[in-house]
Design brief:
heteropentamer, A alpha/beta (250), B mainly alpha (289), C mainly alpha (313), D alpha/beta (297), A: 250 residues, alpha/beta, Rossmann fold, six-stranded mixed beta sheet, globular, C: 313 residues, mainly alpha, MetI-like fold, binds adenosine-5'-triphosphate, binds magnesium ion
Chain lengths: 250, 289, 313, 297, 250
């Protein structure tokens, strides 16, 4: 059953045509990977799903993005609640200049959870989920800026998990992580699949192959091919896809 | 060959760096030396007059009986309205302009307008306060009228400084917050403002200092030069320290010029306390990367 | 409120279609509230402009705008009054010029020192000290100019007048140094350290990092501090009244007495001329001139800082 | 001031004539020291009366009087027709009360030993409009051939107006190329620092700086005796033509108030006169105070 | 022949012991990879080589780091010239807020190259080297901030190449790049080996295996094992190394 439906989506940054006639349906409780060369529009598409592109003035969008058959670009949509349903992890770690605890508790607090015990619980669960708990459990009051790059990114993942979203958007979430943490995160992603729909942008084709159920390959703002991961990597329909995944590209 | 060239060039760059290091350091020292000279002059003149009586007496025609009590309380009364009010209005305006305002002609107009207000001479604010607060609003020549005038006077500085502080917060922080489902206001309140606070405080302190030291506009809106009672409410008459100091400095008798210096010392002590509070707050919030 | 569980299980209906409770949420109210508050500064300007215009209307009935704007003599209070505002503008310009020559390089230099060269501890100690300079009542600066700076100038150039534009300008400059250095330093401080690291890693000296990376990246903040400082210089009254004399002239001689627009406004409004007379109204005419001049300066500064601004996000 | 009108409530008990209320004074900074001294001593006697004194200038003093914000205006010059009219428009009238003499003093550097006496004509030659005097020798060939440095009060001040009227013959008519300052202490610094300087300002500033300055004795004409400014010569009128009265202007309607009457009486009393002298002014002849008091209802 | 000699190096951030008794010799014109879990001190060690740690007040160092037998912590060392000899690419892309051209030309300019033609040439060569030329050649005047994350990182690599260093330090230079660009950079690194000594921090063990001649494995600030890459990955001496490279770690 598809939870996200993208239909004839075009996106412009000013005059620049960044997404061209994108259509795809993303299945509920599955993992979908977006792959493609740098600048092809993967991050841009990801951001249309939780309307983060609203923030960029020059963006113009046509077409429809529906979640559970509701067009999220419908003017009556409550963007904040939408984003609560859709967690996001960015390409660059961007912790708040607050303590580790406050970083993770930020989302739940925003959404009205005040109870200290409940917050403690959420923070612990989320940090465990992001494979960071053991390293920081004694230092929750420490500033997040004291962490290494990798630790910071894991903190950002924990922060996204803390709002318990339905869909999780991840923009190269592991590109700043070491293999151990990456592995943990990948395992976690697999686990989460039971409850969540996950969309992940990655440069690491092995990662896409390892974790995802379906993969979309982008080029210059277009979806070249979108199919089951196993099919796409073993037997792509398109020549371009094949060139890319075999590294024979460019 | 190349190596030698590079080293020669490097020596030049290093020398340039050293020269400028010295220049920059001297610039800083220049300000400090100027401050030291001013302070020494003031301390030499005023320290002898500074005692408990000076703090607890009112103004008098006799230098040795003169004190600054009414002025201290007047300044405190005024700042207790001006500081919070200008802070709230200033930061609110800065938030509006940086976080909400679209880049249209109206908001650019407000922006230019604020920058321009920062350059309007203080006496003009005095005329404004006299017309609007004293006469039209009927507050009379009261603490309230004086405080509101001062609020308008220092507002542009707080706004501009706060705007710069808010601008400096990286967009990635805002994005992180929005992506967690925070609305704009929550993002401002919980992410933008805490990070911008050190900068905002710097601007505020500078402008509060200015409010504490201003004379001309307050004379115009009717802070009086001689009063012996303390205000009981915001509708009472008052005087402030710089007016008292100004009055003393203008008298012909030499002793009064020293009394004025004593007054300046008290004023500076008050500023110092204010700065100390702000620096404490600033360091508390300034978590550097 | 057992965490967001129900919303997931209970109904497939998208929760984000639910409206927030009441349309009067903080998030909706705040922009309106804030915009209203931002309006205060607009009202201030309107108030100032209305007062200046209505009060100077009487003046411009008696004196033609051409005489006012292009006359080269300003002696409104003499028996045979002349109403040419140019000498006052010249005086203001001279003071501002001297003050900028003193304050811009020194303020900027000490901002760079504090932000790029000074150890953190030194910076945290010196910065607040400089900020105290901003709070000293200007009358103190005025006497400082008269009893300290002027004698020094006279020692170097004996024919200097007791009241002169140079001494007053220097001290106005000293007064605005902390404002410029403190606000510029804040702007420089806000430049991400990753940019500095990139520059250092390429073998930049501190000077190169400061001038080629940090300063361009914080340009708009630096310009803003310059504008604030200069506005303050233009608007400064007491120092000029005490140390620069009260003699409007067009000589462009920094060693002579001059009068600025602000000094004229203050001394005349606190003087003994007849309330309501043309002479008294001159202060509003000068006031509106000053207003227009600062307006033009700010528009120019806005243009400059927009043009050279570098974004670092 | 309406806000402290309730204060009389806590009086009344023992003595019916115990005063209370608020008196607000504003105006010339020249008169300020006198009004402040009188207010200080008056309040020491009547501690339920609050007197405030401000110094925003004669013009602003009248402006505040017209607006009804004060009851007494301090002025270093007489009220002008425009101001009388404006008061009339408000249904008010100001009562003129001279309170002391300020002897405008012409001062020179202590090292100046040639110009210790000057005639009014000589002063006029120096100060009049279009004066060609550049050097001392232009006034009197026996005097040094050195440039005169002239200092004086700003053109907005009452001192300027009076001096030009008395010396040059027309109010506000003066050569323009002298060095004006609004702050008399600053003028003191100027003249005391330059052997060839000359200036004029209020008597009190001379009295306090006699060690740094000398006063010029004035001769009304060539044949008259030179008179130096002293308390005696100013008081008995022999110091001519530069002693001018300074004024207070209570608004007529306020004279009905008991506390204002008492305040004015105190102002004109011998204590009041002594206070004026204490702060550097010279008391008027007794009959002028009597005349002031006769204006009270 | 070794160009970098590290001897008994200890580094503290305040009280925190971040590098413990590190000793290693790095061969000239070879590629050395640093691997290890997040927070183990790889970036820290890299930064000691061009004295970037000088910037952090709390850092205290003991031991010696020599380049060509000169201790670079010797007080007479000219740090700027040292850094010109040692290019660096950071974990996070950090272009200057200037045009693409100005970013690349920055280094040559500060080192005294004024000639416009020469600069043009350096900019082109460096951008080509970083596999970015084709994408930006028409837009050299555009702000670097308009580029995508990957493009930005490649720009930073170009910028480092432009000062023509002898040693190149790379802190996860490809973690924000797509495979195509990564491949290009890896090829480039191989090419550069002819002239340069390259030290690369990476989370991607495949990358380490692919490009490097020698690999050092770090754990908690210690060098656990440092040997030829082929040896380390096929037949590690240490149990910990084996656990890490087989992902059986933690
Ligand atoms: N805010 C923006 N304004 C203008 N152009 C933009 C903006 N953001 C991205 N672009 C452009 O849109 C295109 C797609 O960018 P996007 O960030 O989606 O790429 P990507 O596939 O995520 O690349 P990468 O793997 O490097 O992150 C790029 O050419 C980029 O330069
Ligand atoms: N400036 C600093 N002040 C204090 N501690 C620091 C600082 N920089 C790094 N650390 C600490 O030193 C340790 C090593 O950090 P380093 O950045 O070298 O790790 P790394 O191996 O590069 O990790 P990653 O792969 O996550 O980048 C970490 O525990 C980190 O928290
Ligand atoms: Mg991307
Ligand atoms: Mg690292």
């Amino acid at each position: 059953m598809s939870i996200v439906q993208i239909k004839d989506l075009d996106l412009y940054y000013g005059d620049f045509h960044a997404l061209r006639n994108v259509s795809m349906n993303i299945n509920e409780k599955s993992i979908t990977a977006f792959i493609g060369p740098s600048g092809c529009g993967k991050s841009t598409l990801l951001r249309t799903l939780n309307r983060m592109n609203d923030m960029i003035d020059s963006v113009k969008i046509s077409g429809a993005v529906s979640i559970n058959d509701t067009n999220i670009y419908n003017p009556t949509v409550n963007v904040e609640l939408l984003r609560k349903e859709i967690g996001m992890v960015f390409q660059q770690p961007n912790p708040f200049p607050k303590s580790i605890f406050e970083n993770v508790a930020y989302g739940p607090k925003i959404h009205g959870i005040r109870n200290k015990k409940q917050l403690d619980e959420i923070v612990e669960t989320s940090l465990r989920g992001a494979a960071l708990w053991d390293e920081v459990k004694d230092d929750l009051k420490k500033s997040a800026y004291g962490l290494s790059g990798g630790q910071q990114q894991r903190l950002c993942i924990a922060r996204a998990l803390a709002i318990n979203p339905k869909i999780l958007l991840m923009d190269e979430p592991t590109s700043a992580l070491d293999p151990i943490s990456t592995l943990k995160i990948e395992e976690l992603i697999q686990e989460l699949k039971g409850d969540y729909t996950i969309i992940i942008v990655t440069h690491n084709m092995q990662q896409a192959a390892r974790v995802s159920d379906q993969t979309a390959f982008f080029l210059n703002g277009e979806v070249i091919e979108f199919s089951d991961t196993s099919k796409l990597f073993s037997n792509p329909n398109e020549k371009k896809t094949e060139d890319y995944i075999t590294g024979r590209f460019g | 060959m190349m190596q030698l060239d590079a080293e020669k060039q490097m020596r030049r760059r290093k020398r340039k760096n050293t020269i400028f290091h010295i220049l920059f350091l001297s610039s800083t020292l220049f300000g400090i030396v100027a401050l030291a000279l001013l302070l020494i002059q003031i301390l030499v003149d005023g320290l002898g007059w500074l005692n408990w009586d000076f703090l607890t007496n009112n103004a008098s025609r006799k230098a040795e009986k003169s004190g600054i009590k009414a002025a201290i309380f007047g300044t405190l009364w005024m700042m207790s309205i001006t500081a919070p009010l200008s802070f709230i209005i200033g930061v609110s305006t800065a938030i509006y302009l940086e976080e909400y305002a679209k880049n249209n002609w109206f908001n650019r107009f407000i922006q230019t307008n604020i920058a321009n207000l920062a350059g309007v001479p203080s006496i003009v604010y005095g005329l404004l306060g006299l017309t609007i607060f004293v006469r039209v609003f009927g507050f009379g020549k009261s603490v309230l009228a004086g405080s509101l005038t001062m609020t308008l006077l220092i507002l542009p500085i707080i706004i501009v400084a706060s705007q710069e502080a808010i601008k400096a917060i990286p967009g990635s922080q805002r994005n992180a917050s929005f992506a967690l489902g925070a609305n704009r206001w929550q993002t401002i309140l919980r992410v933008v403002l805490p990070s911008a606070l050190p900068g905002i405080l710097t601007g505020s302190i500078l402008s509060f200092s200015r409010a504490v030291g201003e004379t001309a506009p307050l004379i115009v809106v009717g802070a009086v030069a001689y009063i012996t009672t303390l205000p009981n409410s915001v509708f009472d008459k008052f005087t402030v320290m710089p007016i008292q100091i100004y009055t003393w400095a203008n008298l012909p008798q030499e002793e009064f010029h020293n009394v004025a210096s004593a007054g300046i010392i008290v004023l500076l002590l008050m500023l110092l306390t204010m700065n100390a509070v702000a620096i404490f707050l600033r360091n508390k919030y300034q978590k550097k990367n | 409120m057992a965490r967001m569980k129900q919303s997931k299980n209970a109904k497939e209906l998208n929760s984000f279609m639910q409206k927030k409770k009441g349309i009067y949420s903080w998030d909706r109210m705040m922009p309106i509230i804030l915009a209203t508050i931002a309006g205060i500064s607009v009202l201030t300007t309107i108030g100032i402009v209305v007062i200046l215009i209505t009060e100077s209307a009487g003046f411009f009935q008696a004196v033609s705008i051409t005489e006012f704007l292009f006359g080269t003599q300003w002696t409104p209070l003499f028996a045979d009054p002349k109403f040419g505002v140019l000498p006052l503008i010249m005086g203001t310009f001279m003071i501002t010029l001297v003050a900028s020559i003193v304050a811009l390089p020194i303020g900027f230099g000490s901002a760079i020192y504090l932000s790029e060269y000074a150890p953190r501890k030194v910076r945290n100690f010196i910065k607040p000290i400089l900020e105290i300079l901003a709070g000293i009542p200007t009358i103190v600066y005025g006497f400082f100019a008269l009893t300290f700076i002027t004698p020094i100038i006279k020692m170097v150039i004996p024919q200097t007048d007791l009241f002169n534009a140079l001494s007053a300008g220097i001290v106005v400059g000293i007064m605005i140094i902390p404002m410029i250095s403190s606000l510029s330093e804040d702007a420089m401080n806000a430049v991400p350290s990753s940019l500095r690291n990139a520059a250092y890693a390429m073998g930049s000296t501190k000077l190169e990092v400061a001038l080629k990376v940090v300063v361009p990246a914080s340009f708009s903040g630096i310009i803003a501090s310059f504008v604030l400082g200069l506005s303050r210089a233009i608007g400064e009254t007491m120092i000029v009244t005490l140390a620069a004399g009260a003699l409007p002239n067009m000589d462009f001689d920094f060693l002579k007495s001059i009068q600025t627009m602000t000094a004229y406004i203050v001394t005349t409004s606190q003087g003994d001329t007849a309330y309501g007379s043309v002479e008294y109204r001159t202060i509003y005419a000068v006031g509106i001139t000053l207003f227009v001049i600062t307006l033009i300066m700010n528009i120019l500064a806005g243009y400059i800082s927009r043009k050279f601004r570098e974004e670092y996000e | 001031g309406t806000e402290s009108e309730e204060q009389p409530a806590n009086q009344g008990s023992n003595e019916g004539n115990e005063l209370s209320g608020e008196i607000n004074i504003d105006g010339s900074s020249t008169v300020f020291p006198v009004s402040q001294a009188v207010a200080e001593e008056f309040m020491a006697i009547h501690d339920d009366v609050m007197v405030t004194v401000n110094l925003s200038g004669s013009s602003n003093g009248f402006k505040a009087l017209i607006a009804g914000e004060i009851q007494i205006a301090d002025a270093s010059r007489q009220i002008k027709d425009k101001e009388v009219d404006a008061l009339k428009a408000e249904g008010q009238e100001a009562v003129e009360m001279p309170v002391a003499f300020d002897g405008i003093t012409v001062v020179i550097n202590p090292e100046n030993d040639w110009a210790t006496e000057m005639t009014v004509d000589e002063l006029k030659k120096i100060w009049e409009v279009g004066s060609t005097v550049e050097n001392w020798s232009d006034v009197n060939p026996e005097w040094p051939n050195e440039p005169i440095k002239l200092y004086g009060p700003g053109t907005a001040s009452g001192t300027f107006e009076y001096f030009t009227g008395a010396i040059n013959g027309t109010k506000n008519e003066s050569r323009e190329d002298y060095t004006p300052s609004e702050d008399d202490n600053v003028l003191v610094t100027g003249v005391s620092g330059d052997k060839y300087a000359m200036g004029y300002f209020g008597f009190s500033y001379y009295v306090e700086n006699q060690d740094k300055l000398n006063a010029v004795s004035i001769k009304v004409d060539e044949s008259a005796a030179a008179v130096a400014p002293t308390v005696e010569t100013i008081k008995d009128g022999t110091y001519k033509p530069l002693s001018r009265p300074i004024y207070i202007y209570p608004v007529k309607s306020a004279l009905e108030k008991k506390e204002i009457q008492e305040f004015l009486k105190y102002y004109m009393s011998e204590e009041g006169q002594a206070l004026a002298e204490e702060v550097g002014y010279v008391a008027l002849p007794a009959e002028m105070y009597a005349e002031n008091l006769s204006l009270l209802p």
